[in-house]
Amino acid sequence: MPTWKSFAKPAAPALAAALLTSSLAGCGTGDPGRGAPPLDTHRDVTVYTWWSTGSENEGLITLVEVFRQQHPEIDFVDDGITGGGGGSAKEHLQSRLETQDPPDTFVAHAGAELDDYIADGYIQDVSALYDAYGWTDVFPAELIDLLATEDGKIYSVPSNIHRANVMWVNPAVLREHGLDPSGRYDTLDAFIADLAALREGGVEVPLALGTTWTQVHLLETVLLGGLGHEAYSGLWDGTTDWNGPEVTAVLEDFRTILGYSTPTRMDHDWDHAIGKVADGESAFNIMGDWAVSGFGNAGKTFGEDYLAVPSPGSHGVFDFLADSFTMSTGILDEQDAEAWLQTIGSKEAQIRFNKVKGAIPARTDIDENQFTAYQKTAIASFQKDTIVSSMAHGAAIPVGHLTDITSATTAFNKQVLDGGGDVAAFQKALAEAASKAGAATATAGP
Predict the structure, then answer these.
(1) Whether residues 140 and 215 fall in one domain
(2) Which of 9, 48, 284, 297 is deepest in the core (most CB within 10 A)?
(3) Where among 372, 387, 402 does a domain terminate?
């Protein structure tokens, strides 16, 4: 098996000469047993994430601990910034890539979110690492299919598998109002009926919700629950008509559901919404399974104080996303970036990271009994349910398409907050976003 140094790119001639001079000047200072110091004496890896709060930050700290144990000769440099859901961070990252100031590696959602980075030449094909480290044998074939481009190349290493279509339920609130405490809803209509009953019963905010990206997340799950998995996936591959009456009906349901959510939602992020469910002010929140940390931090017990069930209408479906790490092009430290990716794919990192993050490991050679009761349900679902790709978290569509959907959702949400909500205009904007994305794909070619 090749070592992590075997994939290093030679330094540019002028830079190599300069490094050689400094290496000779410091001869004898290399690590014992490693022979002459390498030409590249810049032994660090710059890693860009937006994981600055909650379980995300705890997860990053855990990854760094494992990395330092596995590669003590390399310094970790936190090269990221804060940004809820990665929105502002992605904009900042894009500006750095465009100005040829890339981090060695950055976190991105596996799947279509990488398309623009690939087309612009900002990240490298890391398929060789899958063979070098045996990942093709321990990552599920279905996952590798989701990661690979049409020509079979893979451009990132997943650190986990998240489930997006999760509804977090406070069963005590439902019982108090005479409703089924299981939180299971096979249709959007049934869910909306209980939202109305809760509001009539005095629960001011039945559905806790946060800022823009969480509203796009809600839109995704409403589309999935209202259309079904085939038509939902068809929105991203062009086989479902965005202008169709079925989509109109679901968008009307989305407007209704927004009306039962937090009126100050633009002022809060996802963790605030989870807190409202944990303390019983709200009955529901729809959010990915990173939200489990919020209940843990509040001292709540899964299965008693809170439940995690598929979002309304999406039983039997696993809405997939994965945090993954890339290798940038044009960097000096490819061997050190590869060392970081090796850690990301390692069994120890996948176990320790996901125990903190609330997701499930991408690897299949891990004993599920090491994980929580919720995580066991997610593992079982991923193994048996229909898998679809998340729109809001980059698995289903490229960044540009998601940006347009986010803009349309922002405008629509403002209308709803003002007491309106033009579904026809919203639907038109979403259809135009899809048309624009399709045109961009056709122009880019294979």
Answers:
(1) no
(2) 284
(3) 387
Note whether residue 9 is domain-resident: no
pLDDT tens digits, 123-170: 999 999 999 999 999 999 988 988 889 899 999 999 999 999 999 999
List the strands of the sheet with 284-286, edge to edge.
Answer: 284-286, 166-169, 307-310
- If phi > 0 it is left, if psi is from -120 to 50 it is alpha, else beta; for residue 378 that is alpha
Asked whether 53 and 271 are in contact (CB, 8 A), the reply is yes
The answer to whether residues 237 and 281 belong to one domain is yes
Question: What whole-number distance in Å separates Cα of residue 341 and Cα of residue 37?
Answer: 23
Give residue 364's region: left, alpha or beta (phi > 0; psi -120 to 50): alpha
Question: How far is it, in rounded angstroms, from Cα 364 to Cα 383?
Answer: 10
Domain count, the chain: 2
C-beta separation of 237 from 298 below 8 A? no
CB within 8 A of 316, min separation 6: which ones? 310, 385, 386
- The pTM score is 0.84
pLDDT single digits (tens) 276-328: 999 999 999 999 998 998 898 899 999 999 999 999 999 999 999 999 999 99
pLDDT at residue 81, rounded to an integer: 82
Would you say 280 and 269 are in contact if contact means Cβ atoms under 8 Å apart?
Answer: no
For residue 377, give the CATH number of its domain: 3.40.190.10
Q: Report if residue 412 sits inside a domain.
A: yes
Domain enclosing residue 89, as ranges: 42-162+321-387
